[in-house]
Amino acid sequence: MPDLRNTSALKLESIRKTFGRVDALTSINLEVNAGEFLTILGPSGSGKTTLLRLIAGFVTPDSGRLAIFGKDMTMASAGKREIGMVFQHYALFPHLTVLENVMFPLEMRKHSRRDAADKASAALAAVRLDAFGDRYPKQLSGGQQQRVALARAVVFEPKLLLLDEPFSALDRRLRESMQREVKQLQASLNLTTIFITHDQEEALVMSDRIAVIDRGTIQQLGTPNEIYYHPRSITVAQFIGESNILEGTETPEGLRTSSGMLLRRASPSTSGRVLVRPEAIRITREPATGGATNQFKGKIASRTFVGGFTIYQVDVYGGDTLTVRCLADEGSMFEASQEVNLSIREADCRPVPQDAKDAGA
Amino acid sequence: MNLRFQATKARTSSLVLVSPALVLLGLLFFYPILLLFFTTLEGENIGNYAQVVNSGTSMQVFLNTLRIAAIVTVVDLVLAYPLAIYISRLSPAGKAIALFLVLIPLWTSQLVRTYAWMVLLGRQGPINNMLIWLGVIDAPIRLANSEFAVVAGMTHILLPYMLLPIYNSVSKIDNSLFDAARGLGAGAFSTFTRVLVPLSIQGVLAGVSLVLVLSLGVFIMPALLGGGRVPVIALLIEQQAGSFLNWAMAGTLSAILMVIVMITFLIIKFATRMFVRGRIDVAST
Predict the structure, then answer these.
(1) Staple partner for A237: which of A15, A231, B112, B184, CB 3.0–4.6 Å?
(2) pLDDT digit string (tens) for B73-89?
(3) CA B59 to centroid of chain Cα atoms
(4) CB-CB: which of B185, B187, B279 is closest to A94?
């Protein structure tokens, strides 16, 4: 099997898994490079949890192959895979102290108690919890428990680190600092990390690459930029960030939407669909001066103030309702039913291909 | 109104609430026990106790009772632990059915179940017939009227008392802890000894104390399934009271049995304290 002998940290080939009559995963092909931070992003029910459990070794695939650093692990038990995992609710052992929790994987690997204690203390120091070794998990805050779980997952120098929605139980501020901390630890250990989440913002912030999964298949694999600006399907476009999807027919001048707007775009769309991100639309009182951009007049339908920016729903005269996002400026806010001008650059009207597996829905 | 006054008031009102139960328990339970205790001292002072302690037969019966109770407890533990784990992994509907099946025997009279065992274990009973049909034995063997029959019956009747507390504590364990243990390199044995047992030890000890204490006082099973060959303390007490009308001696034996039960209970209680020390600390902070 020469194709398994390469440097990819994790390689999944045509992985398929069915539960009863439900196809959890239809055909997963994925390669994760060594040292990479890869996010598996998908809504609930997309199959991402099954994929995670399959990588971890808690379920085995019906067919397909899984290799870790070139070694076939398709049927290997979880303990044999040398994967450190942080569970959604941390799964710390409540009857063991923090230090004993971190020592656990080392003791299972027959390290001496002394050695295990030394290594575990060092791992706890790395997450700034060395003073908390004697406490029990319940005596710690959510963020601290999370860091213990992280220390326990990396203390035995695993080949892969798996993170299962680890930040979902934390409040916003704590989540951001934990995201930074995990990123730093991952980078300093040069540890290949697979991160599971349904939070697209988190995925964009943390990842080297993102695999968007839905209906049991990977819809798109790419860098955060690629995924955000060049979604390969409507599903991906709608799942990542906010989006205006405009449908119509292609004409030589541009896309003529069914509502009658003409959108000039840099390249023609084969599917008759164009994606415009809300922040790519400029909103002004006076018609914008300048050449080849798309210009529309419309009326503000609603305004949502979100602090740093403002979101407007604008009814375009003889056209669709567009979502517009702009930086908040106390001096120049628009009021409901005020008339405004919208302008969109050609390059920001991005053609979106048809969903590859629309028939499967 | 200050806080202390409120607290005192709350305590008084809760005392008022429990008083009917206390009076009932006192009259129907503690008073007869006290009476019994005084009976044992009548005329003889502690002579009855000395007689029991000095009598080889009585001590033998006490030891035998403890031995049978220990066997039943161990067998029930070995049977109930895996079963409890199995039930905790079932679907909600499966759990409901399994627990219902566990509870049915508790709703059936002990006497009925004992007679059922007599039928099962009889010379012409299904077990003997099956063994003959399988060719394991040529002629019926004596299954009833033996210690085996007593232990089998007691094990069956007391199983729910072991199973339910263990099931209760096992089902409270977060399943991701087992995944975590496996993922961190623990095999089945380590997962059992390092995660499952410590996290369910409270239920195990509760089950053990219930079954042990109940099996020390069981009467019907040894009487009907033992066929006079299995001397236990409950039979001895019944004999003293029923046949010899020696109420003082029956009371003495009962008092000693009660002390043994209480000591057993205290030992297990102490063991529970030791095992779950860590988590008690956590709860108190």
Answers:
(1) A231
(2) 999 999 999 999 999 99
(3) 21
(4) B279
